Amino acid sequence: MSTTEPLLVLIAGPYRSGTGDDLALLAANVDVMNRAALEVFRRGHIPLTGEALALPLAELAGSTQTGDAAFQSVFHPYARLLVARCDAVLRVGGASAGADEMVEIARARGAAVFSAVEELPDTGESSG
């Protein structure tokens, strides 16, 4: 018997902040969010990262480097649309204006905001 229905959870953390757009540091930030997403999944919820969805679209839009016009036309606008459909946000990592914006949008629409995976409600259906 499930305690709560699975939540659609946006993992919000720094992507570009503090990286100088260094590819290794960008990848490390994505790794932090992906690891958090795995833990959210293991607790029985549905995790999403904006990076996993927006970065391929930015590339298709013609982006050739992080922060160029095509990147800007997709990355944050996509995240804003995504957070508007999520049940919750899990805020991870360090300073990030973009991640903080996702938290603000979530709170403004009454969605749950968590700062640790352990705060997520129990679904009674954790995954492996």
Layout of helices and strands, plus pairs?
Layout: E1 8-12, H1 23-42, E2 46-49, H2 50-60, H3 69-83, E3 88-91, H4 97-108, E4 112-114
Parallel strand pairs: 1-2, 1-3, 3-4
Helix pairs in contact: 2-3, 3-4
Written account of the structure:
The chain has 128 residues and is an alpha/beta fold. The chain has one domain. The chain has four helices and four strands. It has helices spanning 23-42, 50-60, 69-83, 97-108; strands spanning 8-12, 46-49, 88-91, 112-114. It has a four-stranded parallel β-sheet. Strand 3, helix 4 and strand 4 form a beta-alpha-beta unit. It is globular, with a radius of gyration of 15 Å. The mean pLDDT is 95.
Structural class: alpha/beta
Total number of beta strands? 4
Helix content: 40-55%
* Parts with pLDDT < 50 across at least 5 consecutive residues: none
Q: Tally the helices: what do you get?
A: 4
SSE order? EHEHHEHE
Number of domains: 1
User: Which geometry do the CA atoms define?
Assistant: globular
Highlighted features:
128 residues; alpha/beta; 12% strand
How is this structure best summarized?
The protein is built from four helices and four strands. The protein is of the alpha/beta class and 128 residues long.
